[in-house]
Write a structure and sequence with these properties.
By secondary structure, the protein is of the alpha/beta class. The chain is built from twelve helices and twelve strands. Helix 1 crosses helix 3, helix 8 packs parallel to helix 9 and helix 10 packs across helix 11. The termini are far apart.
Amino acid sequence: MQELARIAGVSSATVSRALAGTGNLSVQTRERVRALAEELGFRPSSMARNLRTGRTGAIGVVVPLGHERTQHISDPFFMTLLGHIADNVTERGYDLLLTRVVPNDPAWLDAIVDAGRVDGVIVVGQSDQAEVLDQVAQRYAPMVVWGARIEGHHYTTVGSDNRLGGRIGAEHLLARGCRKLAFFGDPRVPEVEQRLHGFRDAIRSAGPGHVGALLPVHFVPELALTTISDYLAIAEGIDGIFAASDTIAMMTIQALADQGRAVPDDVKVIGFDDLDIARHTLPPLSSVRQDLAAGAGALVDALMRRLAGAPAEAISLQPTVTERASTSAG
């Protein structure tokens, strides 16, 4: 910059303002400095700018997998939500730094926020790390979390009303004549636990003659398929299954097909998320829809408020049921 200033016959401060488009400079001076910079191949250092402003220009997106250590972010749910987040982050002029974490050290999040590589953090899913998130949130403001709000915790969450989603999914099965239901999912995850509570709310409201069982199931497809297949081989009379994710629902349909049981004639199946893949299963999958595009936008909006020093309230999105052939009348 000093060399460019010498050639242009101006100060280094004038060069800086001309290239940044700031300050009270004449049009002629600004254009002359920019033309010389272009001619000489001068490129401002983003690292130096970041050191000067105290900003990195990057947002960290972190996926913790304490509950499911072999799960990957290639999972359709993660890929869908991360895609929407990336669009929103880049449209705000930020880069995105993606990190998948299998927590082995309770200080894993401290290491990320203290490294100075990002201006703020979006955590996708709480996994079994709610206490870690809460401790960091009490000293690090620019952080928002996708997931269920947990009473008494300090971090800002954006997510669906999972208890309502569990209830309306179970009610959908009950309304189609199902009486012996099963819930497939891992209740160690706060969002799944709330879906299970909603599922049980619906069973209780349905009255005598309606029952609901729980099968803890991995999110990893291969592990889920094995667990579900073993269960269905011994379970009797199950006529409706609520899967805590669309991926688990897909494995459920496969396990039923392997055992010669038809969906929806023998067993009706509903998933959760309503991802694009739900339309392409055989039969097409009914699912409790959470609006991931709106959720991603709300996450980034909340983080921008946090970065500006403003408060950001928790946001709960309202789920709906998308009916397809997996629960239609047989």
